[in-house]
Amino acid sequence: MKKMFAAIALVSLLAFAPKEDTYTVDKKASNVHWLGKKTAGQHEGDVMLQSGTLKVSNNIPVSGEFVLDMNSIAVTDIKEADDNKHLVDHLKDEDFFGTEKFPTATVVIKKLEKTDGANYNATADLTIKGIKNEITFPAKVEVNGNSVNATANITIDRTKWNISYKSKSILGSMADKFIYDDVVFTVKLVLHK
Question: Which of 117, 140, 147, 159 has the fewest CB atoms within 10 Å of its CB?
Answer without folding.
Answer: 117
